[in-house]
Prior knowledge:
Order of helices and strands: HHHHHHHHHH
Radius of gyration: 23 Å
Oligomer: single chain
Protein name: EamA domain-containing protein
Structural class: mainly alpha
Transmembrane segments: 61-79, 91-109, 121-141, 150-168, 195-212, 224-242, 262-282, 294-310, 316-334
Strand content: under 5%
Keywords: Membrane, Transmembrane, Transmembrane helix
Organism: Triticum aestivum
Number of strands: 0
Distance between the termini: 58 Å
Amino acid sequence: MMSPKPSASAAAEGCRIASTPRSALTARSTPLQVINILGNFVRIWSVYSLYSHLSSTGDSIVGFIFSCLVPASVIFLILQKPWKGRPLPNSQIVPTVVNGGVLALYFVLWAKGLLACRPLVALLAEYAGALLGVLSAALYGRKVNIWKKIGGLAAMLLAYYLLSNGWATRTNSPLYSFGSEPLEKATETTGMKEMVLPITAGILSALRRVLARRVSLKNQLKRRLHAITVASATCFLFPFAVWDTILGSTSDNIVKMQLPSWAYLSTVLFGMVLIFYVDNVAEENLHLVFSSPRHLVVSTGCIIILEILYKMDFSLPGLLLCSVILGFGILEATSLDRSKKRPLEVHGPSNGSLHNQLRISELPM
């Protein structure tokens, strides 16, 4: 007769084997998490540099974005070589070209919103794409969660309302202000009218990721199609850039050709090229998508550091309050019925993405 001792030993061995992959996975994911944090930091740093450049020089926004997209598209085309390998069918090329138009419109609206609302508001408004979670739930999700998602939508709108009224600034925040030194320039309240630009850009950014996920099934294919998307966005912006910088402006307002500035180089390298690969790694290996509370935590930390370094009109308690409300809204707006999930779904990307609501509509970036 088999003694109970071996069975207990086998159970202990089984527990050890089951726990080893998790610890090994944690060890492997730590460098990737560091890369993700550093990649997002330099990307947000490029946003602050771009804001300083545009607010001080008055360059054409369309012309500047176009001039950044040209080298970015060249870099993506050289790295990915979409013309090599298996030919891409028209069912993937046509939506990708259309997605390029969405990308071009996103960049223009985002840059205009950046100039109108300053970096802190523009960066947090990028998470407005989580509003698509409410739409997907209303159309395809379980009706039992609809009120929870509507509550999340209300929390997100409240966060953006507080941001538009200057709760994240020392000038207008009713909370304790960070720092005691005098401000060089006080920040005026943004207003919900100006917030329309960055919020619309955030929704377009999420829509762009949804379209990219619909036509790309593998990571390598997604990269090839992204190169075509960026090249398509450059072509879409070309006539508008020519009109805006040459035909539609006087000679005094034409963007002057000069040596690339730090704002230009950082926007191309960090804000367009590097961040795509960093977000790709975060999605594929860390199950961390853009429109998620976890990603918002990383961005908020980077924003706090750069607001201090750039000596912006900044209230730490106000920013934390708005970020907490926004994160709660994102969590609820993209929440799942966790009590009814299958065990295999627990380890999926359940951090606020649309992947579990619409499997073909995951936000990959």
